[in-house]
Amino acid sequence: MKTIYILAFFLIPFLSSSQNPLAIPPVLTGNNFELNLQNSSREFFPGVSTNTMGANGSLLGPTLILNKGDFVTMNVSNNLGEPTTIHWHGMHVSAANDGGPHTVIAPGTTWSPQFTVLDHAATYWYHPHLHMKTAEHVTKGIAGFIIVKDDDEAALNLPRSYGTDDFPLVIQSRAFDADGQFIVQTAADDVMLVNGTIDPYLEAPALVVRFRLLNGSTDRAYLLGFEGDMTFYQIATDGGLLGAPLSLTRLQLAPGERAEILLNLDGMQGQSIRLKSFASELPNGIYGAASPSPMPVATIPGYSNNPLNGSDFDILRIDVVSPSANPVTSIPATLVAQTPIPEAQAQKTHTLTFQPQQMGPAGMANGPFVINGASFDLDVINYEIPLGNTEIWQLTNMSGIAHPFHIHDVQFYILDINGAAPPAYLQGRKDVVLVPPMGGTVRFITQFNDFADDEVPYMYHCHMLTHEDAGMMGQFVVNGPNATGTVSEQSAFFAYPNPATDAWKVVFEENIGQRSTFVLRNSVGKIIRNVELIVEPEVQIPCSELPSGWYVLEVRTGRQRASLSLLKM
Q: What is the model's pTM?
């Protein structure tokens, strides 16, 4: 197999040396949408047929243009010959319409969710979400843009002629074997595709153009910019427009993230400019940087042989042609007023810890990774959230590689990253955030409004799809006024010191005086201790005799339970 991969590494860049016109996905509009998921093939390299999957075609799918307030029907027909799902990434829909791993579309059947579009104008996307098959189905080609329009966006002087001055760009790194077939779980993703096109060029008019950027890669992050450090203007994050355009020369985009930017090409007719990823500037610990981890001994097999890692490379060549009719020639001063959620409104804080399932250099960069000590289980609801709750989610990454965290159902505002305010390009509505490695912490605030379902859960997970498929995912249900479920987590508690050498002191805020069961497991799930104790404000858990490594403490009080990740040094 090593010989095959090395052959593909030398062969494929040679075959893809000529440039190709950028494919622009076709558009579907209206209130009823038909998506046919199908197997097909595509000739990425001369004379080589690659097996693909697509929606209404051989690769990717049409762009769905929706209007806020419209009631829409999505008829998704599965002709793949195997189960799949379709998730409307970033959109605020009910759990039954969300398309997560519980909503399986059987082969030969059609799934027809219906919902009112409640989202702000922004760029969203759709893709499969079948547990343990997401990476494969997305890598082979099933994905498409969703563009939501609303009155606020329509009132602005922005480019919005699709395919003329408003261009969708899904950026994906892919790996091929010597037969030209996709490889899913590998660090040999050394071929770049934009809208499914290798080595693409785009003819863009000499005016202000809009790019809708989507990182649709399985694992890779990008630091995007234009050659010569040309200034561009970010106007939107994952979930909507910013308050004002943000002047940038670099924009980091992790898997699943979207951004909309404006580039002023006025007066540049006849010139060419290249959109690039300046991966040499990515900090170690992000997939795509020179090293996938800040730990020198933690690496990914084959990672250092990938020429894209830690190197600057081209994404798209833009050839500037004559301006089109009714050009936009200036950048607006303001966009849409922002209404972040005040932190003081939060009624609950959830703490999530990311860590490798097994300690050691290999696990710190490769995983498999778990959240709060547990791998994903379709039958376990990790959180039950009351409808209308305002919550802070605190994400701490104790692994050696950054993880892009995505939550379904809601958009959020980032409060801080490693204790500091987020950079300006992350201060809008978001549904994906990259959590730094080696103890990095992100806090965000969100509200769970409109939809409640006691049975069908929403997901939260790492959007590195290989990590998600390997179990780095959890799920929650939102309970409405008539919900019958019980809260599945203990009232707030935390431990210090963590890591510890002699003992952890576990501090409780509520349930004082109640008898609880304390279960301590090691990193492979083996029970080390199982004792009943009376909950006091502080309970001491000795650990001096334990081997160094990760542990999970579960506290059960009646029907309530919660877990906490602990590190013994």
A: 0.83
